[in-house]
Design goal:
By secondary structure, the protein is α/β, with parallel strands linked by helices. Strands 3-2-1-4-5-6-7 form a seven-stranded parallel beta sheet, with helices on both faces. The protein has one domain: 3-Layer(aba) Sandwich (Rossmann fold). Strand 4, helix 4 and strand 5 form a beta-alpha-beta unit. Bound molecules: nicotinamide-adenine-dinucleotide (NAD). Belongs to the short-chain dehydrogenases/reductases (SDR) family. InterPro entries: NAD(P)-bd_dom_sf, SDR_DHRS6-like, SDR_fam. GO terms for molecular function: oxidoreductase activity.
């Protein structure tokens, strides 16, 4: 029970990596507050895992973030998972596409951290350490991929945000790390594959770029989230943890 006694909030917990992480944290003894913009997905999560608390939250809505924080106890852990993939080069990127990618992938995390950090600092005073985990990607400042300019740029910003928070609060019991997965088999990836002109080839192409010869499962990523939120990682901060099946060897 590596997360016993910890209260942890997760965004985009309705499906994919967020959901798997919510279940893994719950199974390690955490009080999990699972949030998502999709009410039906949250209902399904609660059916599967009745001890998890759920709240609707659109992370692009700053007022909603503040309102939710006002209803919750101080957190020991925060996993900012929500993010969006824009498919295209810089020539395909309208101002609206760019603004949306920045709003969902970066500004939401800035607001979540700004809103929940004061309570986490209080918690760190009594509990010893609090942990923020942000979702970045191998597609970021770490490596460029075709048709991922907005995605890579915003995920690079997540790595910078993570390092900045880690540096500012390292002496006050706050750790901040980010996770950089390879390609993970989740509902949104399935959507990207299915909407390709040749879905069979698209799946082959995603697999071909991963040296381990397969897509990641969400169960490959959730243990890293649990580790970073737990005291097992109490000497780890400011890091971008790659879980990519060997893409960046
Ligand atoms: P997904 O894209 O399948 O699901 C995303 C979840 O986010 C959904 O439940 C959706 O309802 C929720 N969501 C969407 N907009 C939201 C908003 N405004 N507020 C709150 N919730 C919102 O999940 P995934 O593929 O596991 O991706 C999760 C994160 O992992 C993203 O940040 C993504 O960039 C990152 N990531 C994914 C992969 C991959 O290959 N799947 C690889 C690297 C990083």
């Amino acid at each position: 029970m590596r997360l016993k006694g910890k209260t942890i909030l997760i965004t985009a917990a309705g499906q994919g990596i967020g959901r798997a992480s919510a279940e893994a944290c719950f199974n390690e003894g955490a009080q999990v507050i699972a949030t998502d913009v999709n009410a039906e997905a949250l209902q399904q999560l609660q059916k599967a895992c009745p001890g998890i608390k759920t709240h609707l939250l659109d992370v692009t809505d700053g007022h909603a973030i503040k309102a939710l924080a006002g209803q919750l106890p101080n957190l020991d852990g925060l996993f900012n998972c929500a993010g969006f993939v824009h498919n295209g080069s810089v020539l395909d990127l309208s101002d609206e596409d760019w603004d949306f990618s920045v709003a969902l992938n970066v500004t939401s995390m800035v607001r979540m951290c700004r809103t929940f950090l004061p309570g986490m600092l209080e918690q760190a005073k009594v509990g010893g350490s609090s942990s923020i985990v942000n979702m970045a990607s191998m597609a970021s400042s770490i490596k460029g991929f075709p048709m991922r300019t907005a995605y890579g740029a915003t995920k690079a910003a997540v790595i910078g945000l993570t390092k900045g928070i880690a540096a500012d609060f390292v002496k006050q019991g706050i750790r901040c790390n980010c996770v950089c997965p390879g390609t993970v088999d989740t509902p949104s990836l399935r959507g990207r594959i299915d909407s390709a002109p040749d879905p069979v080839q698209a799946q082959k192409d995603f697999i071909a770029r991963q040296p381990m010869g397969r897509l990641a499962e969400v169960s490959d990523i959730a243990p890293m989230i649990v580790y970073l939120l737990s005291d097992d990682s109490k000497f780890v901060t400011g890091q971008a943890m790659l879980v990519d099946g060997g893409v960046t060897i």
